Amino acid sequence: MSTLFSDRMQDVPRSFIREILKAAIDPDIISFAGGLPNRALFPVDELHEASEHVFKEQGRTVLQYSNSEGLIELRGWIADRYRLRHGIDISAEQILITSGSQQALDLIAKITLNDGDQVIMEEPGYLGAIQALSLYRPRFLPVGVSEAGLDIDGLQDCLERGSPKLMYMVPNFQNPTGITYPAANRLAVAELIKDTDTLLVEDDPYGELRFRGEDIGSFYHLLPDRTLLLGSFSKTVVPGFRLGWVAAPIALMDKLLIAKQATDLHTCNLTQAIITYYLKNSTIDDHIQNIRAVYGRQCDAMIAALKQAFPADVSFTRPDGGMFIWAQLPPPLTAMQFFEHALAHKALFVPGEPFYTTDAPRHSFRLNFSCVDEGTIATGIDRLAEAFRVLG
Ligand SMILES: Cc1ncc(COP(=O)(O)O)c(C=O)c1O
Question: What atom of ligand 1 comes closest to residue 102's alpha carbon?
Answer without folding.
Answer: 11
